[in-house]
Amino acid sequence: MAALSILTCSACGRLDAGPRDMCPACAGALTSMPVEGAGTLVSWTVIRRPPKSFREHGAYCIAIVDLDAGVRITGRLRNTPAHAALGERVSLVGCQDRIPVFALDR
């Protein structure tokens, strides 16, 4: 399984998807920490009219995922599923233009 890098506060331990310069809770220093890309699908939608910078990709799906590590992130959902259910398990399959790409664990 692919891994992601998230931020953790050295002072209070809060996890954050970033990017940030300091912890939003206590202003502590943040360090990068690798985590596995497994999680639960919280929400998703299909972007049918993408902005100019994404037009060559056509329609694509974005998703909000609660990672098992305890942080919520936004990324893409591969293969634009017609019947993805909230609460389904997803796994990170890579990154495209620094954006995490997930696939359903079906």
Automatic annotation (TrEMBL):
Domain ChsH2 C-terminal OB-fold, first and last residues per copy: 34-93
Pfam families: OB_ChsH2_C
Protein name, entry field: ChsH2 C-terminal OB-fold domain-containing protein
